[in-house]
Amino acid sequence: MRKTILLVLAVSLGLAGCSSKNPLSPALTTHGSGVHTFVLNSPADPRLPAPMREVTGATAADWVGLRGAMSESKGGRVSPVAADPASCWSQQTTQLGLRARLPQPLFARAYALTQIAVFDALAAAQDARRGRLPENTVAAGAASVVLIHLFPNDADQINANANIQAGLTHWRGEGARARAWALGRKVGRLVVERARKDGSDAVFKGPVPTGDCTWAGTRPVLPMCGMWQCWVVASGGEYQPEPPYGCASPEDLRDVEEVHQLSRERTPEQIATVRKWADLPLAAVWNNMLSQRVAGRRPDALASARGFAYLNAAMYDAFVSCWRAGYTYWTARPLQRRPGLTTVVPTPNFPAYPSMHTSVSGAAAGVLGEIFPREQDYFAAQVNEAAMSRLWGGVQFRHDNDQGLIFGRKIGDQAVLRLRGDTPMRLIASR
């Protein structure tokens, strides 16, 4: 499995070329310009430095980073994929998250924070009063601040990548590069400020419930995640599944027996599908799908960044909502209901209901289906495959999958409402 993960990561990094408030959510804002930002009040947020005076608020750390970027300035042509900032920083996040072995909700949080910083910074840079700013530099400033906050032990690597990205091409007038870097860094700090208050540091104080059909284990993964602050929905409790089947009810026993029967009839193809959806964190799988499509279509930087921001905001919210339900019901996993059950992959250390794979994939497919309407059927098929992989793998019941998909799609629909009508988003699908 480890070889598979490293191979997928290597391919992904190669592709990337990397060494007033919305009534639907307090966190999402909409503006007359048609640009919807997340942390910024608007692209002209008064917390940002004034146009053409971006460097006035730069810190000593900002200047150190900027000097590194200047030293890495590169001329000539660069690959379109390497030049796309959102794709590059998505792959950097993948690498860092895998190395840190982040739990899946924290992995999704890292993607969302990084991509929202890139998008908000590029949206701010579109303000005509700021003049033309190098987009890779803006994004590098924003993303590096967020990632160093999340992965402080990897600061040297993050700074090195930021220097390369910020100096990716020659730019007429280094003053513009300095202003771009300072603007990006400021947006990154605002995102970090929000991250410090999102509730992700809450400590679970118990108790862990007991009883028939109740999840049994120790050190459950992130029980407080369901209370974290969301981006697209109002809270993790806005969309929730129906209650799980009653313990030992006919429906419940039917689901238990189905998983047992499937475990005795697995085909090599089914086992391969299980591993496909288990070898990488789920958020990485869907980010890779978007990275591949961006590489083939070459959208402008803002359009790409918007796609990554909304994809990851929706997935993060689905994780929070799934965890909210999971630690409300504390439903046992198949192996806990049928001791001795053979599973393809290890049983996750958190409650079964609802399914993480279907809820998060349902949200992701909704966003990607809006961006790439000709591939809606493909994304829907991927969601179904992800759901069946958990059933075939022996770690999920059918009702877990069915209910996870229902509310995961609703979260994706919320994100799609904010995407519709955005011309920059359509540029990805049309090229």
Please describe the structure with a list of short key phrases separated by commas or semicolons.
431 residues; mainly alpha; Vanadium-containing Chloroperoxidase, domain 2; 2 domains; 17 helices; elongated; disordered N terminus
How does this model look, in words?
The two termini are 36 Å apart. The chain is elongated and about 70 Å long. It has helices spanning 2-16, 60-71, 80-83, 85-100, 104-125, 135-150, 155-166, 174-195, 250-263, 268-276, 282-297, 301-329, 334-337, 356-371, 376-393, 398-419, 423-430. Mean pLDDT is 88; it is low at 1-17, 19-32 and 75-81. The protein has 2 domains: 2-195, no CATH class; 225-430, Vanadium-containing Chloroperoxidase, domain 2 (Orthogonal Bundle). The longest helix is centred in the last third of the chain and has 29 residues, at 301-329. It is built from 17 helices and no strands. The chain has 431 residues and is mainly α. Helix content is 59%, strand content 0%.
Q: How would you briefly describe this protein structure?
A:
This protein is mainly α and 431 residues long. 59% of the residues lie in helices and 0% in strands. It folds into 2 domains: 194 residues, no CATH class; 206 residues, Vanadium-containing Chloroperoxidase, domain 2 (Orthogonal Bundle), CATH 1.10.606.20.
